[in-house]
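User: Can you help me understand a structure? I only have the sequence.
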Amino acid sequence: MNLSEVNYMLMMRLMGQKVGLTIRASEQKIVGKETSENFDIIGSTQHFFISDFLYYTITLNELTRYTSLVTMEQDANIMGGKLSKLFKPKMIIRLYHDARMVEIISSQDIHQFKPRYDYPNQAMHQTDEKRQLSQFLKEWLQICHKQGQIKVPLPYTK
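Assistant: Let's start by predicting it. Here is the structure, written out as tokens:
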């Protein structure tokens, strides 16, 4: 499997059933079948707590029939204080549902990564910067799967 296909599979597992159901529902609406459910999940976030200090947040920004736009960021709560924006890694990721692949749109406010760079270059990117970012995303997704915990609201019973 390609690295972007592995990232797609891991991302869909983290995002859960909601996105898959929404994609299927939008396909049914386009075909002409009516669906009774309203899947309003744009802007929804999912937090994955790795430890008392470290957590990842996945936010669904856009959802269309063939693509989704997701923001994934890492945050830390050290001694009750939040980290500044400089120390918070953030990726904007596009998921292609028809091809079942992931593309990193931006990372740390750097956009449009080339597949290969000459070295040395003006921006001092690594020769395989795009592949390294995909590998970094894979590591984030794997740590969320292996160690991530989510807050689940418990029903109140008397």
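Now, to help you interpret it: Residues 3-147 form one domain. The chain has one domain: 3-147. Let me know which part you'd like to focus on.
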